[in-house]
Design goal:
Distance between the termini: 79 Å
Number of strands: 19
Structural class: mainly beta
Family: Belongs to the membrane fusion protein (MFP) (TC 8.A.1) family.
CATH topology of the largest domain: conserved putative lor/sdh protein from methanococcus maripaludis s2 fold
Main location: other
Low-confidence stretches: 11-17, 20-24
GO molecular function, one term: transmembrane transporter activity
Mean pLDDT: 88
Protein name: RND family efflux transporter, MFP subunit
Number of helices: 3
Subcellular location: Cell envelope
CATH class of the largest domain: Mainly Beta
Radius of gyration: 36 Å
Oligomer: single chain
Number of domains: 3
């Protein structure tokens, strides 16, 4: 039986309308997306530090003579003006006998090692001991130039957005908070870093002159743009994300990352709270592709960044 051209055309249209014959057609991908959040975020940084007492000086003999008496012991706390040593001067035989000379504490502090004993001869400027005022400890640390310019150039002494802690060499955390007191005015050309100083109260005397540790800086970034780390991918040293435009089309966009907090990125530029950023299928997408998406709840994001 001869089939007419019209019948042939109808059969072809029916064939291609069947579900099984549409498998070759491209399907629209389903993706999970998020809207970046604007939040106050606290970032932490650690720098190796040297710990020094606010005042740490040698106590020297003022005259030539013989050490007559020692009134203190190593580790003893003394008050300002308290006598520490007594020296019997050695005089020219032609001169009259002088009274012994006391050596007093110039400020309140703790006595260090005793360098000489009663009866020993001393000369002017001989060190008898050291005196340390450790009521306030100064913690010095250096920040590399690139890191300083990237995230710390805006810091000022006594910055209210900056919290400072101190981790000791054994891993324990000192129980008193510190304050940023000074930032050097120049970079060290040999180390490529700039010096900072933080002060810590030391009411119980737990910190000692000469210790080391790590100073911990906790800086609050207000209204920071935050996205999950898994939303970004790296290409040739730069970070990118996929976003969906109003036409449901995929576009990729470069983002500048300011900091990383746990599994999240603090974004300096590239996306905002009104953007739709794709969270899944990033490795299987291409620019210009059409997608459908669902927005993922960000309760977990909010709780981790509080």
């Amino acid at each position: 039986m001869k089939i007419s051209p019209v019948t042939t055309l109808i059969l072809i249209l029916v064939y291609f309308s069947l579900p099984g014959c549409q498998s070759h057609q491209e399907k629209v991908k389903q993706v999970v997306a998020i809207h970046p959040q604007s939040k106050d975020v606290t970032i932490s940084q650690a720098f190796h530090a040297q710990i020094q007492a606010e005042r740490h000086i040698p106590i020297r003999a003022p005259i030539k003579g013989v050490l007559k008496s020692v009134a203190v012991q190593k580790g003893q706390a003394v008050n300002a003006g308290e006598m520490l040593f007594e020296i019997e001067p050695v005089l020219d035989p032609a001169k009259s006998i002088a009274n012994s000379v006391p050596v007093n504490a110039p400020f309140a502090g703790v006595i260090g090692r005793l360098e000489t004993q009663p009866g020993s001869p001393v000369r002017p400027q001989d060190i008898l001991t050291t005196l340390t005022d450790s009521s306030v400890m100064r913690v010095y640390f250096n920040v590399p130039e690139a890191h300083y310019l990237e995230s710390m150039a805006s810091l000022k002494p006594k910055d209210e957005n900056l919290k400072i802690g101190l981790q000791l060499a054994d891993g324990t955390t000192f129980d008193q908070p510190g304050t940023l007191e000074a930032i050097a005015g120049v970079f060290n050309p040999e180390t490529g870093s700039i010096a900072f100083r933080a002060d810590f109260p030391n009411p119980e005397g737990q910190l000692h002159h000469g210790q080391t540790g790590d100073v911990l800086l906790y800086q609050t970034l207000h209204d920071a743009i935050v996205i999950p780390e898994q939303a970004a991918f790296e290409l040739r040293g730069k970070r990118y994300v996929y976003v969906v435009d109003a036409s449901h089309m995929v576009q990729y966009r470069e983002v500048v990352v300011q900091n990383e907090v746990d599994d999240f990125l603090v974004v300096e530029s590239g996306v905002g709270v009104d953007d739709t950023v794709i969270l899944t299928e990033a490795g299987n997408l291409r620019a210009g592709e059409k997608v459908e998406w669902v927005i993922q709840s960000q309760d977990s994001l909010s709780s981790k960044l509080k």
